[in-house]
Amino acid sequence: MAKSPFSARVASAARTTASANRDGDHHANGSSRKDGDGNHVLNEILLALSRAESEAVLPKLEFMRLKLHHVLHEAGETLKSAYFCNSGMFSVLNVMPDGKSVEVGLPKLERALNRFAQFMGVQVTQVAACNRLHEVNERLARWLLMTQDRVGSEHLPLTQEFLAQMLGTRRSSVTVSAGTLQKAGLISYTRGHVAILDRHNLEEAACDCYGLLQKQVKEWESQDA
Fold first, then answer.
1. What pTM value is reported for the model?
2. Cα–Cα distance between 140 and 144 in angstroms, integer?
């Protein structure tokens, strides 16, 4: 079999905790759930399990604290655990032969996982087009919005190097684009830290890709309601 021109990597893109289900078991309301060690479960897929499924799955979970940029899976490796992000976010990167990388997905049981797979497919296609067609300013605004949606905070621990890696561009381009957004009063940008100050206008500064992805999510959520 011919080798792919790129490989995929799943990494933690912000301070993250995760639960790993080693045995792989497959709608409860939003009431408090805990794993076998008493840690609160916040992952929406796990919270959507029925009471019986939850009682079968949650005791098998192992709570893990992951460092920034921790790699969960490299392309071609055998999958040994399933990770459910409890806080923070995971990111899917395409790594080229020369070592350069670009993000293609920001990942959120059977029905929930199927819907997740559908969204990931749509997102990968949209983000790939975005990275090719849109300016760095627009892409940076879109990526910050998507990150805030998943992390749930306006304060994001992000470096220039990491942002450049996510957007598939040079650090100097990130510096210029972040400076533009900061001068417009949309974000505050210091070494290793980004704060979103004006989300409404940041959405206006982002490319259409963010709105299209949000529209698709809302349509699916209305179907599931």
1. 0.60
2. 6
